Protein 1
Amino acid sequence: MKIGYRIVLIILFLSVVLLAEQIGTSLTYKNGIDAYRKGQYELAIQEFETILSNDLESSEIYYNLGNAFYRSGNIAGAVWAYESCLKIYPTHNNANYNIKIANLNVVDKMDLPEPPFYLKWYLSVKKRFIPSTWINISLFTLLLNATLIGIIRMTSLSILGMLQGIIIPVLLGSLFLTLHSAWTENSYDLGIIYATDVEVRSEPNVYSIRLFEVHEGLKVAVNQRKNEWIEIELLDGKTGWIENKHIRLIQ
Amino acid sequence: MIRIVIIFLLTTLIWADGTIKVDVDRRRINEGDSVLLTITASNMSEDPVINLPKMVDFKVVSGPSQSSSTNVQFINGKMTKKNTIAYTWTLIPIKTGQLSVPALKIKTDKRFFTSSPITIIVSKRGPSQTGIKPQFFIEADVDNRKPYRGQQVTLSYILYTQVDVSSFDDELPKFRGFWTEELFAAKNLQLMEVQKNDSKYYAATIKKMALFPTQSGKLIIDPLTAVIGIRDKQQRWNDFSLFGPPSKKYTIATNRIELNVQPIPNRTTGKVSAIVGNWNIRSSISTTNLIQDEAVTFQIKINGTGNIQTVDLSNISFPNELEVFEPKIQTKGNPLRDKIGGEKTFEWVLIPRYPGVIIIPEFQLNYFDTDKQLWLTKSTMPHRLKASPNEKAAISPIGLSKEEVTLVGKDIRFIDESAPKWRKKNRGLITRTSLTLLFLSAMIFAFPRVHHYSRQRMDKTAGGRQAKQALKFATKILKTGSESQEKTYTEIFKAVTTYINMKTGASRVEYSTDEIMKILGMHVQSDKFYEIEDILYRGETIRFSPVSSKGIHADNLKVITLLKQIDENWV
């Protein structure tokens, strides 16, 4: 009886803690929205960043944080927040629109050759969903296929065999996209240059050769880290080292 | 005379083997003249070590220059040898009045010697000058002693001489607190006769400088020093030199000048700049009708007088519709005028990236006019550009795609006020939905196999399960009960038959008592079942030739008990 009583108390306590945490998060978020509405963008940024520092995220908070950064004139922050929003919700229309506006203010622009149409189509399909959604799509297709196999065994309807002929290529395609998407997600980190002008060096120290310069808001890939330095790679393939204080990684 | 003797004694240090003498060539000079400080060491075994002390009243212009001599004499067959070494410095007084060369500390032959201070009287130059009037001197003068910060001050150096000057070598001071530019430097002295300080001199401008004070307050222009060569007068008819009569070098300096630089007054409108002088501004454009993405040249010209280096327009803003390249800046000075100034041209290449009418606004130049002592603003004219669309432009050269170009000038979309769907950061790729789908897929895949397997298993164990249920079914039949004897014994027979059928897997409708006993004898390892034989025979009798029996209920209960015992011992 005593043990049962204790377990109930612990469950109640944990529930209250979780509830209080949720209420606190909602309140901070509301304060951020109110501050934004009043034009207090720095305060709004502070409130949204507090929630993010508590290990919570959502596409809405990243989107609103991006807007607050943009309004306060922090273009690098805006690009970072919109990129973070699109990472968890790639088809967020407003974030897709706003990031284009924010990128107009980014100094560095990369003109890359247009990929062939099939590659462009494939990449746009892959980009539509995040890796976990691709996993779910693959599993759902697998479920459909399994159901179909079951029905075929029980009924032996020839039309179901034709249907299976469609589902299996879809399943293989979604599996390929899932693997590619997950590999892309885990193979390298992305970050946004967070300082106005950053000198990119050939080695991770200030005495090495200055290779080129990057500016705030530029999206770069992170190849490797060494102490306080990060090796970045630009879209055009250029690589070099910058101090990690000049970059904010996309979570 | 007595004073000179005392000074000589004081400045001459004598000890056992040699002497040290500290002296100057003149003790009464004019402002700008130099004195030679000489230290002479005679009959010393080693060279003296001299550290000049900090001169408060003088500036050391040159030195030390070193000279030595040896004098050998034979008197009455006895030889005497005298070694002399002399060090000379040139000093220029930095003020007028009674000045002092401080005491000098000299080390030689492992001994220290200290001289006495030397007093030199420096007279101010000018009409009220007393004593000997100088034969040559340089004078520095400025055109304005109370300029505004940034206003030009013209500094002139003029040489006055009554003697023949053979050479002239000047050294400019460091103009601290000024931005400077040389206006004139004489290659040859153009001497003109002038009256100066009630005397006749020949004067020549040797240098002119434009000074722009970079700070307000009291600023000092330090003296210029010059080494001037004066040709000696020919003393005798036979003094002939191939290079002309010999000349002697003198070091002279100009007077110090003090400026009181006034700060530029504030402007009520707040439109101020660092530009001082008198300026004009005008703009021009190569064309106003053009095609989108076509370059156009825009020029702003500023001309006037003042420090042209402070004139800057390179950071002005153009409309966003224009791509602006770094300006080309050209400066032309006014070399023939005393007032620094000229024309500065800023030239931009502009490319309209959008079709339509683009207005280049007026640009303002704010400057302080020192003549009028007023802040003034002058502006260019606005220009109206008409850019017709460029149909060929798919992607603009500055890297903006067509889509991006349409976004220029637009604002971001409003914030999302819907309730957020919170999730933990950096969660894994596998979600609860994924696990559910995986489980369902596995279930559906496994279902036909599981179903087949369970069916087979059911079929296999059907007999056993029937046997287990045999007692239950038989008891159920017996418990239904009946009031008639015939029906009761029929039920007993039915129960026993059902029991045996289920236990053996047979499906007979009826057994005889002997057959029942035979089966029980085969499967039951107990004697108890023999008691059932009597009940079955009684039942047969009553069923086929009805006779009265009082023990039907007891038989019914007995069969239930016996079937339980049989079931327990069934093998």
Note: The helical segments of chain A are 2-37, 41-53, 59-71, 75-88, 93-103, 117-127, 131-155, 158-187.
Protein 2
Amino acid sequence: MSFHDNLNTYLILALFLLMMGIYGMIRHKTFIGMLISSELVLNGAGLNFMAFNKFLAPDPAVGQIFTLFIMGIAAAEAAIAISFILAVYRKFTTGDPQGVTDLKG
Amino acid sequence: MNVLMDVLFFGFVVLTMAGALLAVRAGVLMHAVLGLAISLLGVAGLYLYLGSPFLTLMQVLIYVGAICVVLVFGIMVGYTPNEVAEKVAMGRNAFLGLLASGTAAFFLMVMVIGRTTWVPAAHRLGDFSIEHVGEGLLLTWCLAFELISVVLLIAIVGAIILARGGREEVSR
């Protein structure tokens, strides 16, 4: 059995993407950096769906359709998040999450 | 032929992992977007191995084509060059703690994956073809499909409203 016919290969790769995404969310000090990391997490989820779809699922169309939905949601999320970031940048003139502290006591 | 497929597969895996590392570790945000695009291209190649050329095309079109361009626009419009370079504000101890806990969690989950016996479905309905996917989208998952388009419409309108509001704030 070669590597690309093995479910575990894809699962471990998706796990790697998830871990990298979480690490990036902690490490990046800008809003857009966090957004980039969240895209990595979403991609890991999509890869998981496709892997289970190929090897286990009874209907091979379902996983593809759900991955397509994840992509659509990710596109909407990116558009909304970018406009949020732009609005915050115009109001606070900073892209630094630590600088947005209007509600701080 | 088989060897070529193996080599290509490893190429895509390396592309995915290296891109993810670049996206996370880059000091300049534009490099992080480049890393994200490379990683997404690698995953697109893996979708080919998972039996779906359609999803490969969609991945390149939506993720690499649309989302990365939106991110690049966000960086170019929103940030002055001085702020693009990130501060690495994390201390050494915090980094080591994060590394240790992350590695432990990773190997724990790898063990969970290795020990689980996955049971394939007894029999399959349909195939991987794009016709079958289209039938599913328009018959079984029709409501979700239409809701996604409404969500996208609302997201676009909301994005325009949010971005416009900020501009009026500045001009006052």
Note: Residues 3-94 of chain A form a domain with the Helix Hairpins fold (CATH 1.10.287.3510).
